[in-house]
Amino acid sequence: MRLYRISPSIVVLGFMIGVIVLGVISRSFLGDAFWSMNDEFGFVNRTPVKGPGFPPIFAYWISGSGGESERILRLLKAVYHPRNRYLLHLDAGSLPDERLKLAQAIQSERLFRAFGNVEVVGKSYAVECMGSSALAAMLHGAAILLKINNDWDWFITLSASDYPIVSQDDLLHVFASLPRDLNFIDHTSDLGWKEADRINKIVVDPSLYFTVNRPLFEATEPRATPDAFNIFTGSPWVTLSRPFTEHCVHSWDNLPRKLLMYTTNMAFPLETYFQTIICNTPEFRNTTVNNDLRYFVWDDPPKLDPLFLNISNYEKMTKSRAAIARRFTESDPVLQKLDEDVLKRSPNGVGAGRWCSGPLMNQKGETLDSDVCASWGDINVVEPGPAGEKLKSLVSELLGDEALRSRQCKSQ
Description:
Number of helices: 15
Strand content: 5-15%
């Protein structure tokens, strides 16, 4: 038998090629594909499938202040779905320990570690909810979510006093059939009393330049209403498409920057900024849906904030066909009723959905975690309930040709 001598350099080269090929194969099937494997989670479908026939992806900005970390955590669990992305923020009213505990609470949850879709803003800054610092914070949140991953479809803003009145399966089901460029923004050009009290009045927000939250103070002289663009106002709570969010954050047009400068000295700019940009931008003007999908109860006459909701509001709230309600006090009994009846959420669990596969069992058949969402199935399938059908009927009415066009950015 004839023997062939192989050069050591060829052996090394062959080994390196083998390693590279094996690495490519491994990454193709495990690392960057839809499935990953580790000892803690087993096989986990991490990456949502996108495209026709599949649900969208929401990017949530959930904000709060000092003493609200527990409320934010509860709200996160109420609106959680493995498809979505979440960014949590506690402003300078919170202590560093509170922000650290919130981050640790997220990291301690097996579900959040598995899907890696919850982030916490580590560095805090001052925010005054009535001032331009609140707008700056929201734009900051949108920019971070775009940087983390731009695969999401809609940007939804929540505060610690909000709570969902539909499940995420409901919301994903309703939005699955919608054009991805729609923006749910309550808006009007009828400024009324706001023209003198909000638009023309000059204020300064010290939270823009101090490290702790500080209230606004007013200038003595008013300013004229702008004539370079038409001012629109409305609800500060919005659901924005990714294209419009990108326009506001990375705009090639100068209006978002000009308006940001203008609203620096305006009270409640969140009631004006997005409304004015979208209604003065031809590319996005016809993508507006004039509704914020929220449920409020106002005093008579209305005050700055809506009334706190409680169990007496439950029936009207759940029949309202809205998606989110506010405001709630912490641990109000009505939240537990929403958890039990609408969200199917256990005290420490997340809102149930079609992706939940029941309790977590070990190989011996012993129960490790009895929560209905302790084990996970297909995150690309949703199953709406009665609340979802109500919301769908509202959205269908809003998107009717005549109703939609008659309420889009109409100047008074």
